Amino acid sequence: MTDIYQSSPVVAVIGGGFSGAFCAAELAVKSSVPVRIHVIEPRAALGAGVAYSATDAAHRINVPAARMTLFPDHPADFDRWIRERGVLEDDAAALWADGHAYPRREVFGRYIAELVARCGATRPEIRIEHVRDAARAVRREAGGFVIETASGAPITADFVVLAVSHPPPAPPAMVAALENDPAVIVNPWVPGVLAAIPAAHDVLIIGTGLTMADAVAALARRNHQGRIFAFSRRGQLSRGHAFVPTPFAWFGTNPPPRTALALSRCIRARIAEASVAGLPWQVVLDDVRANARKLWDALDVTEKRRLLRHLRSFWDSHRYRVAPQVEQVVAAKRADGSLRVMAASLRHIARQGGRIAVTLHPRQAPPSVLKSFEVDTVIVTTGPAHGGVVSGHPVLASLAAAGALRADALGLGIDVDEQSRVLRADGTADPALYVAGPLARARFGELMGLPQVAAQPSAVAAHIAGALETKRREKAALF
Question: With contact defined as beta carbons under 8 Å apart, do 363 and 142 qualify?
């Protein structure tokens, strides 16, 4: 068996967060031929990535465990897993009053790591190996790939899956001048960075989405006493959950709108209809999410850009809902005045003595109306800077420089075809180079939350398994 394994084709997965780890696990299950799967990931565990490596107890999954669906045939697998392992006994706050469980994020990372280990041990001829290293460059060579690593040990592979992590947030231009100031936290996901903020500090948070809510919850857990100011262009907060037994189905059976404006009006009309029927808006957005690929594909590139420019913040705040434990903290701090959320734009920010002076222009206010104040700490929570992901990641930059990869037309990530194969600079698809995860979302639309983010890496695994079987047959036909 060792000889068979050593002579098997190699699939290298660059990135061992959720998308990369799940792709590897699915390939181990789907492949009909022996294969070596190398997951190149510097973190100690596979499956965690940026999202699920958070160790702060205040950071919870923002979807009930029963809806963290990876397998359509077993929709409650994660919920079963946490209950069997006594997670709720160790974290009583995870269980909300309505019976839904919202465990800490790192728990879901442990679940994925266990899943990968289980899938990797199912068949001895198919093995998943965690290469605890960082990929630095990828180049084509002799019909395959050579991956350069930080340790200097090259890895050769027949197929490569790019499952690189989300890029860190990019601070606004005015904040970039303070990027090296110790009082400015550009990446709030760095372990321990929020815990170091003194309780008396006044804090400015740039961004009002899920990461802002997580930051506020993390500060509150440590009994933060200072003022917190949070702002974004529209001041949109992530909305909460509503669970009703009656589903809403409309978008799956009706023709999709062809413009961003028509889609917006259609969704608003459906929400009004649902309200008349006594249903909350959440059921309509769930229907939109379930049919996101159909709706996305109905828009041309111009309309997709328009959708992203005008409606993305509204979609994000309604689609990516906040865990009720975190929502409760944010609401309490707003009620007691310690948290103020504003729709505003940044006009000035600079170090002024021992503090940071800030000036904001409230949205829709006359140009002369400005709000100025001072804070001690600034946290950037504007989300990943996908626009510069290709140039900002060494592996992607190396492939782009060789003409083997190009950014997508929407600035969301990497250009791929319907099989998630990378498109070269000339528009042709590389049959052995794939993208797994949200960096393929310009093609597929909704790839930022379960179950969509699970289905795409699973499909990548199926495509590679098919290609491996084809190669096996072609090789057998020669003898």
Answer: no
Residues 227, 371 contacting (CB under 8 angstroms) = no
Element (H, E) at 40: strand 35-40
Reported as a single tens digit per residue, the pLDDT across 126-177 is 989 999 999 999 999 888 999 999 999 999 999 999 999 777 677 888 888 8
Q: Rounded to two decimals, what is the model's pTM?
A: 0.90
For residue 249, tell me if it sits in a domain. no
Q: 109 and 178 in one domain? A: no
Amino acid at the residue 220: A
Domains of the chain: total: 3
DSSP-assigned letter for residue 322: P
Give the Cα separation of 456 and 436 in Å (integer): 7
Look at the chain and count its residues: 479
Q: Is residue 245 part of a domain?
A: no
- 8-state DSSP, 187: -
Rounded Cα–Cα distance for residues 41 and 49 (Å): 9
Question: Kind and range of the H or E element at 400?
Answer: helix 394-401
Predicted pLDDT at 6: 58
Task: Compute the C-alpha angle 380/384/387, nearest 5°.
Answer: 120
Q: What are the backbone dihedrals phi and psi of residue 101, each rounded to the nearest 5 degrees, phi first? A: -105, 135
Find, among 214, 289, 222, 248, the residue nearest to 451 by Cα: 289
Residues 375 and 226 in one domain: yes
Strands (E), 142-277: 144-149, 155-157, 159-162, 184-185, 203-206, 228-232
Half-sphere exposure for 472 (CA within 13 Å, toward CB): 14
- How does DSSP assign 116-130, residue by residue? HHHHHTS-TTEEEEE
Residues 215 and 361 placed together within one structural domain of the fold: yes
Cβ(64)–Cβ(82) under 8 Å? Answer: no
Phi-psi region of 183 (alpha: psi -120 to 50; beta: other; left: phi over 0): alpha
3-class SS at 180?
Answer: coil
Contact 48, 34 (CB under 8 A): no
**Residue written as token pair 């068949």:** 123
Let me know: does 467 contact 431? Beta carbons within 8 Å.
yes
Residue 326, sorted as left (phi over 0), alpha (psi -120 to 50) or beta, turns out to be alpha
Q: Which amino acid is at 264?
A: S
Partnered with residue 422 across adjacent β-strands are 416
Q: Decide if 460 contacts 432 (C-beta within 8 A).
A: no
The first and second tokens of residue 404, run together, are 């083997």
How does pLDDT run across 38-47, given as a tens digit for each residue? Answer: 999 999 889 8
Kind of pairing between the strands at 429-435 and 184-185: unpaired
User: How many whole angstroms separate alpha carbon 466 and alpha carbon 354?
Assistant: 61
